[in-house]
Amino acid sequence: MTEARESAGPHAGRVPGTPCWVSLMVHALDATEEFYGELFGWEFRPGPQQLGPYVRALLDGREVAGMGHLPPDRRLPVAWTPYLATDDVDQTADTVRLCGGTVAVGPLDAAEAGRMAIASDPSGAVFGLWQGTAHLGTAITGVPGTPVWNELLTFETESVAKFYTSVFGYTEEPVVSADFDYLTLHLDGRPVAGLHGLGHGLPRDRGPHWQTYFEAADVDATLRQVIELGGRVLRPAHDSPHGRVATVADPEGAEFSVVQNPS
Fold first, then answer.
1. Which residues, in sequence order, are CB contacts of 235 under 8 Å at separation 6+?
2. Residue 138, domain member (yes or no)
3. Same domain, 26 and 107
4. Start and end of every VOC domain (predicted)?
């Protein structure tokens, strides 16, 4: 994780290639709403139903994330998935295919909200594409309970970075280190996401995947609450240059990280 404090606001989030939304597909939607409602103070209202029952999570009346019921015939992981903004989802989906990725769902219309697709990079990491119309993406950032950063955990960054830069026009800023394979993707000079190469340290049961970081007012208190609500702590809280951070899983196993502003 790097430069998490410089995540884009809701208007900047519409720049093509910027993570603009996060969504979670689960088996037990009601129970998942209860977990995140208690943890982050989210409230929920119905959203587009193209992929089955779907709700949008709201914080102070503004949309922050989406959750849906995982259709039995969709072989998708129970995982938080970032959506990357695009001005033309059909064209971007074609580019994904040309660059070695796969488009698993769509492109399809999500009612009046916009047009979307679900894709994966050549290593298999799943991400979404979002062309917003009525719904432009996350409407509030910088407060507890909102997504603040997205990071791809993969085998190595060099080859997969070529895919993302080819599709979305990112520039790369690598961390210069002999034993730390990390680079940040930039748009218009600002960091928007990270790629972390873990080599053999990548969990075999997961494979390459995107991970979402949510802001927390108190990471240690959040971890206690995660356990009380039936979740698990995967990586205990520790201090980093970007704040106190930890990785957890919800009751269905969806992993995410929480980070506390160091100020």
1. 246, 247, 257
2. no
3. yes
4. 18-132, 146-261
User: In terms of C-beta distances under 8 Å and separation of at least 24 residues, what long-range contacts does 216-223 make, across chains too?
Assistant: 216/144, 216/145, 216/258, 216/259, 216/260, 217/144, 217/260, 218/260, 219/243, 219/244, 219/245, 219/246, 219/258, 219/259, 219/260, 220/244, 222/39, 222/246, 222/248, 222/258, 223/248, 223/258
Residue 9 confidence class, pLDDT cut points 50, 70, 90: very low
Say what the pLDDT of residue 263 is. 65
> Quick one: pLDDT at residue 1?
53
User: Is there a single domain that holds both residue 176 and residue 125?
Assistant: no
pLDDT tens per residue, range 82-93? 999 999 999 999
- Look up the CATH number of the domain holding residue 87: 3.10.180.10
Question: For residues 143 and 222, what is the distance between their CA atoms, to the nearest angstrom?
Answer: 14
pLDDT tier at 3, thresholds 50, 70, 90: very low
pTM: 0.92
On whether both 111 and 183 belong to a single domain, the answer is: no
- In this structure, are residues 159 and 73 in contact, taking their beta carbons and an 8 Å threshold? no
